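HUMAN: Mind sharing a backbone?

ASSISTANT:
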Amino acid sequence: MMANVFRLLNSAMNTFKTNQAHEIIEYVRKNYNRELEFLWVRSPGNAVWRRADNEKWFGVLLTVAGNKIIPDAGDDAVEILDVRCAPDVTDFIVDKKKIFPGYHMNKRHWVTVVLDGRMATRDICRLLSASYEIAGQK
């Protein structure tokens, strides 16, 4: 059992390279006792966090080409975080500088943050906490 836990922890830290991704992984461990789930064999650089009570996703950590999020960014890989967002808030917070429409998700209900330091980790954690709460709603 411990070997599997170590492999899981090691996998998350080895898959995601940015300090910001590591800080967010630790934040989720500490505050929600959740680990990333790597669901897709064809996309080993993508993983989700689910709530324990209802298994709804509250965060998706992905590695994608930068130009998929920021048009003039080029195709170098970036790490991003998708989080749930209340539809009435999404239009107000998406500025396409720090917060982007949800990548590969419903853009009314999800937003994306690039984990490159353009947004403070504490602010990203606030978005993640709100996402956790939204995912818990019936």
